[in-house]
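WARN retry 2 of 3 for item q-0093 after timeout on previous attempt; input resubmitted unchanged.
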Amino acid sequence: MANESGRRVFILGGGAGLGAHQVGAIKYLEECGIKPDVLICSSIGAINGCVYGSGGVVALEDAWREFRSLPMLRPSLRDNPLTGLSLFSLDRAAARLEEFMDFPKLLDSRIDLEIILLNLSRGYAQMWSSHDCREWTELRDVARAGYAIPPLFAPIKIRGEYYADGGLAWNIPLEHALECNATEIYVLAPIASQLPYQARFSGLLDYAGRLVDVLWRTIGNMGHLYARMDDGKFHGVPVTIIEPTEEMSGFSALGLFHAFPRKSQRMIAAGYRDAKRTMERPPLDAAELAREAV
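OK item q-0093 returned
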């Protein structure tokens, strides 16, 4: 565990179907004796955080082993493009996911759960802590809002205001980790921050595709991509970033939203390998740090 003067914070960034990568990373970190005191969660990270806080790595592996996303995407009489605020209903996905979530346990857990939401009523990102919730049903609503990706799913009403997935606004909130008295920060980012080098473009579609990849990489890593790090530390706090390699970078709508067991198992294995590679990498010297910053 983290030392008594502070807390170990895991930041679970968003990335939809790529979120299985975090499962392998958490599994490896646990094998190293590294467990969180605080979970800061965005989008798919909110799902992973709730499942992990409820049943640990075993529950995470079970959830991803069984989950298929596309059959969950159906409209309803309330949630549809004609009379509602979304393309699909969240009900089927929430019911399936919540089989692995124990909200009364999460409310009383030693692990602080912080979920990033987009407050659509006020127009800005907002952090909701499990400590802010009056009862477990409100924590359930906060969790649902955390992965209510607009316009796929309708916003969730909490205390009279509308909330949705906050990942588009604040996906990797390093600053909030400091507010949680972090002495160690582990960023589990399922979206690669590095793209393969591209020297030329074959045409407009190729150029547009590259722009989408860059925007996806930037939004997905907002909060740490351009953070001012000093010798691997953010304002004096050590930061470890575990992310996929550039071979798994780039935007794909089907790849993003299509989760199924075989793909999830590959992502879990990749997350484990990437965590192992990151944790076993020797510290960079000053010259290497300067080269990486260029």
